[in-house]
Amino acid sequence: MNLSQKKFFVIAHRGASAYFPENTMSAFKAAVDMKADMIELDVLLSKDNIPVVFHDERLDYKTNGSGLVLDHTISEMKKLDAGSWFHPKFKNERIATLREILEYSKAKILVNIEIKPEAVTDNEESGVVELVLNLVNELEMEDEVLISSFDYRVLERVKKSRHPVKMAMLYEQKQSNGRAPVKLAKDYNIDAFNLNKKELTENWVKQLNDYKIPFLVYTVNDKNLMESIIESGAKGIFTDKPDVLIGVVEELFKKN
Ligand code: G3P
Ligand code: MG
Fold first, then answer.
1. Structure pTM?
2. Residue ranges of the chain with pLDDT lower than 70?
3. Residues with beta carbon inside 6 Å of ligand 1?
4. What is the gyration radius of the CA atoms in the chain, in angstroms?
């Protein structure tokens, strides 16, 4: 993914998740219909080692199942209703595999694959990073994908694999050990920073801008905040309401 190909990226957080059940095909299709630039999705592993698109470690809150995602096979999870928690009209929504969403997205929309720390183990062989990269290779989507994680082992493993895919760091205090974003960006050789809006201090913004490190900010649904974050120099915003962000971007870029 070439982050300089656009001035600013509208990123649909877990799809258009304010209007559709998060991380499901319907939420991603809506993001494409709204003309977002990118979707963000969360990846965990099933018991039988299939990368699945799901945010929570447990199935309990966003499906009619219960227990850990990693204790269920993909065929068990495919039977679950992943939409009724949001609205009864989405009762047929199913948990998607990463393969399904990537196949749908190819040549339509860019994809930020966030690998959840719960999917990462000490064992690198056939781990989540390798499985995700193999899928990206097989579907020839190297240029359409950005990989990110709160778990810095993911970033180390992607680099070690020498895969050409671009990588973003999600700031995590413990692993950062007092290092500022610019130092972290150099240490891990990352292409972008994905920052929580709460971490956006004046000092960090200045450093990131001075060193020309692209930064993407999550999760912003408020119009005024969107505007000020764009003006601070952010390269993109993750939002549950891509239609709202697109409106703000159009207004703002028309003025300037
Ligand atoms: O990738 C940005 C954002 O999604 C990180 O937090 O908890 O929404 O996955 P979370
Ligand atoms: Mg996420």
1. 0.97
2. 256
3. 13, 40, 42, 55, 114, 148, 170, 194, 218-219, 238
4. 18
